[in-house]
Design a protein that fits this description.
47% of the residues lie in helices and 15% in strands. The strands form two sheets. The protein has a seven-stranded parallel β-sheet with strand order 4-3-2-1-5-6-7, sandwiched between helices. Strands 9-8-10-11 form a four-stranded mixed β-sheet, covered by helices on one side. The radius of gyration is 20 Å and the shape is globular. The structure holds NADP nicotinamide-adenine-dinucleotide phosphate (NAP).
Length: 387
C-alpha cells in the first residue's frame, strides 16, 4: 500500500493522479491533499478519498472549506505552511508535487527534506532550485521520480545504462498550436488560440508555455538537474505527433526512444508504482493507426524563448529561477490580455538581460531572485501597457 500526499489535487495532474488511484484502490491510499482556490472540487475529493489532512492556498478560505466538508473529520490547513504540512505529512511515503509555478517549490522542498519519494510534476521547482533540491535529497535519502512525460521517457531510456556511455539526451516538443502559423501572424494570436493545444489537455500556464516552447526550455533545465547531464548534451526536437516522448543517443550512435499514448496517467502511474508496472486505463498505442512520425528542427525565430532558456541554463546560479519567474509574470499578463503572444518572449528576454546573476546558497536567495525578476518583468509589462 502506497500512502500518497497529493499537492495540486484540483489541477490537471491532480485529477489524473486521482484517476490512477481510483482504479487501483487496493494499492494506494490518499492521506493528504493540497490545492489552491477550487474549494468545491477539493471538498468533493476529500469526501471521496477521506484523507487525514487537506489544505487550501488562502487562510480566509479555511472556514468555507470546513463548511463544505460537512461532518467529515478531516484536519484543514492553508497557505504555504498548509501545503508544506501536507508535503511532509508523516504517514505519507510518496508525495505527488503538482502545484503549478514557484508556489510548488516550498512544498517540494518540504517533501524532499522529509525523505519522501517525490513524484515531481512541478518543473518550476527543479528549474529554480535544482542544486538545492538535489543536495537536500542526498542528505535525506529522498528519491525524486519524474512525472513529466518527457522526463519519464528519459528515465526509462537511461535505466540500466552506464551514464558515461550516453552522448545526448533529446526531449521532443509537439510544437504547440502555432507550429505552422505564419510568423507574421504570431503577434495577433489570441488567448483562446494559444490555449488550444493539439495533443495535451493541461493547465493554462503549462499550455501557454507549450505554445511558446518555454515549456521545453524549462524541461531542458529540469533534465539537466534530474539526470546530471550537462547543457551541451541536451537537445530538443519537434515531433508534432507526441508519440516519442524522449530519446537517448548512446556513444555508439544507437538511439533509444520511449514511446507511449499522449495520456499523463501513464507517466504518473509509473512514478507511483516504480519500479513496478501496472495495467493503465488509456488504450495501447496503435502505431499503424498513428501512421507517419515527423521530426523537425526547432525554428529559432518562431520559438525565441528556447534560446533564452538555454542561456539561463548555461549561466546557472539564480538565472533559471529568474527565467521561470519572469515567464510566470509574462504568461499571466498574456492570459489577462495585457500583452500579446509574441511579447511573452520579449518580456522574458528583457527581464533576463536585466537580471544580475548570483550564486544561491539557500531557498531564501532563490525566492529573492524570483521576486526581483517578477518585479522587473512587471515593470517591463507596465511600460508596454500604460494604465
Ligand atoms: N498538465 C500536464 O499534463 C503536465 C505535464 C507535465 C508537467 N506538468 C506540470 O505540473 C504542474 C501542474 O500542472 P497542471 O497542468 O496540473 O496545472 P493546473 O491544472 O493549473 O493545476 C495547478 C494546481 O495547483 C494548485 N495551486 C495553484 N496555486 C497554488 C497555491 N498557491 N497553493 C496550493 N495549490 C496551488 C491549483 O489549485 P486550484 O485549481 O484549486 O486553484 C491546482 O490544483 C505544473 O508545474 C506543470 O508544468 C503538467
Amino acid at each position: 500500500m502506497r500512502r500518497i500526499s497529493l499537492l495540486g489535487s484540483t489541477g490537471s495532474i491532480g485529477l489524473s493522479t486521482l484517476d490512477v488511484v481510483r482504479r487501483d484502490r487496493g494499492r494506494f491510499r490518499i492521506v493528504a491533499l493540497a490545492a489552491g482556490a477550487n474549494l468545491p472540487r477539493l471538498a468533493e475529493q476529500a469526501a471521496e478519498f477521506l484523507p487525514r489532512f487537506i489544505s487550501v492556498a488562502r487562510p480566509e478560505d479555511e472556514a468555507r472549506l470546513k463548511f463544505l466538508l460537512g461532518g467529515l473529520r478531516i484536519a484543514v490547513g492553508s497557505g504555504p505552511e498548509g501545503a508544506e504540512r501536507a508535503a511532509a505529512w508523516p504517514e505519507a511515503d510518496l508525495v505527488v508535487s503538482a502545484i503549478t509555478g514557484i508556489a510548488g517549490l516550498g512544498p517540494t522542498m518540504a517533501a524532499v527534506r522529509a525523505g519522501k519519494t517525490v513524484a515531481l510534476a512541478n518543473k518550476e521547482s527543479m528549474v529554480a532550485a535544482g542544486p538545492l533540491l538535489r543536495r537536500a535529497a542526498a542528505r535525506s535519502g529522498a528519491a525524486i521520480l519524474p512525472v513529466d512525460s518527457e522526463h519519464s521517457g528519459v528515465f526509462q531510456c537511461l535505466a540500466g545504462q552506464d551514464p558515461r556511455l550516453v552522448r545526448r539526451v533529446i526531449l521532443t516538443a509537439s510544437g504547440g498550436p502555432f507550429l505552422r502559423t505564419p510568423l507574421a501572424r504570431l503577434g495577433t494570436r489570441s488567448v483562446r488560440q494559444a490555449l488550444r493545444h493539439p495533443r495535451w489537455r493541461m493547465g493554462r500556464k503549462v499550455t501557454i508555455d507549450s505554445a511558446t516552447l518555454m515549456n521545453k526550455g524549462l524541461e531542458l533545465i529540469e533534465a539537466h538537474w534530474l539526470f546530471d547531464v550537462e547543457p551541451a548534451r541536451l537537445d530538443v526536437i519537434v515531433h508534432p505527433q507526441s508519440i516519442v516522448h524522449a530519446l537517448v543517443e548512446m556513444r555508439d550512435g544507437s538511439m533509444l526512444a520511449q514511446m507511449g499514448p499522449t495520456d499523463m496517467r501513464i507517466p504518473i502511474q509509473y512514478a507511483l508504482t516504480y519500479p513496478d508496472r501496472r495495467p493503465t486505463a488509456p488504450a495501447p498505442l496503435d502505431l499503424a493507426a498513428a501512421g507517419r512520425l515527423e521530426f523537425l528542427a526547432v525554428e529559432a525565430a518562431r520559438f525565441p524563448l528556447l534560446g533564452v532558456a538555454r542561456a539561463a541554463m548555461e549561466a546557472g546560479g539564480t538565472a533559471p529561477a529568474a527565467l521561470s519567474a519572469a515567464n510566470e509574470e509574462a504568461v499571466a499578463a498574456f492570459l489577462s490580455g495585457r500583452i500579446g503572444f509574441r511579447e511573452i518572449a520579449e518580456v522574458v528576454a528583457e527581464a533576463m538581460r536585466r537580471h544580475r546573476r548570483a550564486e544561491p546558497h539557500g531557498l531564501a536567495a532563490i525566492f529573492a531572485a524570483d521576486r526581483e525578476a517578477r518585479a522587473e518583468a512587471a515593470r517591463i509589462i507596465n511600460q508596454r501597457t500604460p494604465s
